[in-house]
Amino acid sequence: MPVHPADAHATIQVRGARQNNLRNVSLDLPKRRLTVFTGVSGSGKSSLVFGTIAAESRRLIDETYTAFLQSFMPSTARPDVDELRNLSAAIVLDQERMGANARSTVGTATDAFTMLRIVYSRLGEPHVGTSSAFSFNTPDGMCPRCEGLGEVSDIAVDRLLDRTLSLNGGAITVPGFAVGSWYWRVIAESGLFDADKPLADYTDGEWDALLHRPAEKRKVDGHTLTYEGLIPKVRRTYLGKDRDTMKPHLRAFVDHAVVFATCSECGGSRLNAAARSAVIGGVSIADCARMQISDLAGFVASIEDASVAPLLAGLRELLGALVEIGLGYLSLDRPTLTLSGGESQRVKMVRHLGSSLTDVTYVFDEPTVGLHPHDIRRMNDLLLRLRDKGNTVLVVEHKPEVIEIADHVVDLGPGAGTDGGEICFTGDVAGLRASGTLTGRHLGHRAGLRAAVREPRGWIPIRGADRHNLQKVDVDVPEGVLTVVTGVAGSGKSSLVHGYLADREDVVVADQSPVRGSRRSNPATYTGLLGPVRNAFAKANGVKPALFSANSEGACPECNGIGLIYTDLAMMAGVATVCETCEGRRFTAKVLTYTLDGKNIGEVLDMPVREAHAFFGTGQAHAILSRLLDVGLGYVRLGQPLTTLSGGERQRLKLAIHMAEKARTYVLDEPTTGLHLADVDQLLALLDRLVDDGNTVVVIEHHLAVIAHADWLVDIGPGGGHDGGRVVYTGTPARLAAAPSTLTGEHLAAYLG
Ligand code: ADP
Ligand code: ADP
Ligand code: ZN
Ligand code: ZN
């Protein structure tokens, strides 16, 4: 839709934007239109859309709070831009997971459960009272046993002990209880047990004393010590503690030893007996929460009652939107913690579809992540609907299907990092095609089938897979080739791949999940590059390598070598500001006088990978940097905090590390996330190289270029949730495209033309 002349004044005007790599960029964005931002990863799309436009909008909104409230908020730094005119309130819909709250579910996050509670408080039989009587977050409604969590934690005894051994033989496998240790002596020398008897031969009394006896003082050899059964002891020592601050081996123990089981009292529904007993047409609110949303929509449509008609209409609209957005396979009781990034983004989006706000700027980060080509059409409709309600919609996206519906395109580039940051094209899609930019040239580009598929060297059998929605799936995954697992969102791809392939011994999973402790980590620390770099500096200057590490006396005492200061606030995302002491240079002035080929350590950490690769021409550092280049991270700076990397970049970083490990099987989940059409070719070459080196590669993907490039497809479906969970096709892409028997087949055939 061309901008109507009468609307021509209605533009957001950006003047002189210099955030991150942007090169003094100025542009006008039409309001109430759909603008798609394109460009290779690292070209500066996020720096413009999120770092400049959305950040300034948020800052302006924060400024409207009273000085008193502002004193509790992080003082957000003004983005580096000369002027931003005509900005409206921006709502960012990104792929950040929704909070780390175990009490948040799809139902609570969308308000659908809140509406359902009111319906049950009015129409449920017998009447139980107010809507809070149906809330698992209030004492009125929560299950007393699990306190509204739906599950209870328990300790798996067999993970604490080896029953075939005696105490002297090392039967206790809990960290800190090694034979001879203090904790071990308290038990073995308590006088309660024969320390040479295998646990398997213990009497019931001995067994109970070993595991459950409450704390008591005992006198042993004249000493008084406190004996306590292993289970209460482990609970006190390891459970109530913050898992994230534990040492890795303790964390591994806790993850292994604590099992979560569905609460037996409420059956996982989180609700107390009264709330569970009220029914409408024989269906309880707990039944509703468990149902697949597409089924729930049918049930709610069948309820008729004039007294709550407006509420029912609102609930129907909300459930309808969830189905429309491709989330009909979820249930309201699904914890938001378990949603993927793409699912989280779509759940957040639903809240805005029913909103009557207009003139809002909606900002999306790759809304098609996790969507099958079949689902993308629906997503497109929703983006257009937001626009048609009078909003400005800004979308960062790589998929041609979305670029094609744009009213306006902003193409950034030409390259990444310091080679990017410029506007290469603005205008409509036809103009983009004709522009000759990298994006324009790739828009109609079609990757084809491979000339000859590779032959599997063997098969990995999966039998009777029934996790989540999988319907007793039997499938063989070929070894030594590139397999792509396809299917609509919710069909069961992740359940199959993560549940039955990823836990095998030789498997490396490179996913998009956050890296722990990532604030202090950066690509240099995370990949082990810092070691050889420190050694090179030490050798060149005749000093100790430790001087160049972030936790040494050489590091800036104020920021501990991070170069940034983080301010954490309870309810808000933390903010980072450049350290004033070292001005972001990370090290003390003394350390910065040591140089290697004219660069100090701070300058090296500030280099993009590509530049560092040329700088360190040989050796271990060069090898690590080569792998980072191979996975398309040439534009990332060595010292950039991992928290600033996107999910796709994190995944490629993990892949780069694991490539050195000589794994046999690689499992990747949507590795094209964040990749430009031009970068996808490079990814395909990388996957081919892994296979040609003798590895098995299994990829979950929706990108048709990757699907076409596979040796073998495993297509799951036909639909999502209980309409999916079956293998609908296995074989080569060529055979599927020739006789398209599935949704994936139809799209593949159309793509190949
Ligand atoms: P895109 O969204 O196109 O992938 P970005 O805007 O994320 O690109 O990145 C543009 C450049 O800015 C890249 O070189 C990237 O490494 C850098 N960059 C992004 N975020 C930060 C940050 N928080 N601090 C420093 N550099 C950053
Ligand atoms: P895909 O990867 O194809 O999008 P998934 O394997 O994520 O599909 O989901 C398949 C089904 O399993 C869906 O109905 C989904 O809601 C359900 N499911 C997935 N993960 C979980 C989970 N952690 N808890 C409960 N149900 C889940
Ligand atoms: Zn319970
Ligand atoms: Zn500092």
From TrEMBL:
MF annotations from Gene Ontology: ATP binding; ATP hydrolysis activity; DNA binding; nuclease activity
Query: What family name appears in the similarity comment?
Result: Belongs to the ABC transporter superfamily. UvrA family.
| Highest taxon of the lineage | Bacteria
Q: Which UniProt keywords apply?
A: ATP-binding, Cytoplasm, DNA damage, DNA excision, DNA repair, DNA-binding, Excision nuclease, Nucleotide-binding, Repeat
The principal localisation class reads cytoplasm
- Extent of the signal sequence: none
**Transmembrane region(s):** none
SUPFAM superfamilies recorded: P-loop containing nucleoside triphosphate hydrolases
Domain ABC transporter spans what residues? Answer: 3-439, 453-743
Keyword GTP-binding on entry: no
Return the InterPro entries for the record: ABC_transporter-like_ATP-bd, P-loop_NTPase
Its subcellular locations are: Cytoplasm
- Tell me which Gene Ontology terms the entry assigns under biological process: DNA repair
Q: Name the GO cellular-component terms.
A: cytoplasm
Q: Name one Pfam family in it.
A: ABC_tran
Recorded protein name is: UvrABC system protein A
Native organism is Actinomadura rubteroloni
Q: What is the lineage of its organism?
A: Bacteria, Bacillati, Actinomycetota, Actinomycetes, Streptosporangiales
Please name the PROSITE patterns in this protein's record. ABC_TRANSPORTER_2 (PS50893)
